[in-house]
Amino acid sequence: MKGVKKHFEEEASEFDNVILKLVPHYIQMIDALVLAIPFNNNDSINIIDLGCGTGYVSMNIKERFPNSKLTCLDFAENMIAQAKIRMNKYRNVNFILKDIRKFEFDKNYDAVVSSLALHHLETKNDKIKFYKKIFNALEPGGVFYNADIILGSNSTLHELYISKWKEFMAKNLPGEEIEDTWMAKHHKEDRPEVLLDQISWLKDIGFKEIDIVWKYYNFAVYGGTKPK
Ligand SMILES: C[S@@+](CC[C@H](N)C(=O)[O-])C[C@H]1O[C@@H](n2cnc3c(N)ncnc32)[C@H](O)[C@@H]1O
């Protein structure tokens, strides 16, 4: 995990440019994540963005819910610094510099969202434990949605997903950089899980109205509601 923090500290200034080259349809994926939050635009809801990075998700939340009270959490100082610049014009935004794994929720939230961060939790158990923690921190009727890299249900699908991912990256990046930099980092740092396993963990934890809102091969937006 030390390597993950170092990677994002170093990448912060380039992140917004790079992410568009690495993640297929990133803007559409984040749009789906933010559109899944089921409240009225004027509601003053409490929302937390876990692993907020440079704040692209947070910015979209504030554009859609201007009265929301938004918490942006990340453990990389340089990423948070970029997020602070981006979020400067919005009211009711606070920042927490913290490792997700050590984070105790400071209050109950109407929406917990995350993008491309929770796959860094190392094991299945770490993820299940953290999803439970999110469930406990939600208000009844609150929602959790995660946009993330995932695994397919078998090796044939996995190979297809990886080849489609590389095909996308190849439109923007030289083949050598894809393999030596990005796939190398992916193998070293990322711990994605089978999407349908994650869906069943959410079910077991007690989430309802679980759905996969958006999907493009090995990237998906999924989550559910804590019942009232
Ligand atoms: C790929 S970036 C995504 C940033 C942003 N959510 C987005 O979609 O543009 C992943 C972010 O998660 C953060 N992150 C990864 N593991 C974390 C952890 N254990 N605690 C807090 N932040 C973490 C990284 O620092 C980084 O900013």
How would you describe this structure to a colleague?
- Keywords: Methyltransferase, Transferase.
- GO terms for molecular function: methyltransferase activity.
- Residues 47-142 form the Methyltransferase domain.
- This protein is of the alpha/beta class.
- It has a single domain (2-225), classed as Rossmann fold (3-Layer(aba) Sandwich), CATH 3.40.50.
- The protein has nine helices and seven strands.
- It has a seven-stranded mixed β-sheet, sandwiched between helices.
- S-adenosylmethionine binds next to helix 1 and helix 4.
- Residues 4, 8, 19, 51-53, 56-57, 74-76, 79, 99-101, 115-117, 120 line the site of S-adenosylmethionine (SAM).
Q: Secondary-structure map with pairings?
A:
Layout: H1 2-11, H2 15-22, H3 26-35, E1 46-50, H4 56-64, E2 69-74, H5 77-87, E3 93-97, E4 109-115, H6 124-137, E5 138-149, H7 155-170, H8 175-189, H9 195-205, E6 208-216, E7 219-225
Parallel strand pairs: 1-2, 1-4, 2-3, 4-5
Antiparallel strand pairs: 5-7, 6-7
InterPro entries: Methyltransf_25, SAM-dependent_MTases_sf
Organism: Candidatus Methanofastidiosum methylothiophilum
Protein name: Trans-aconitate 2-methyltransferase
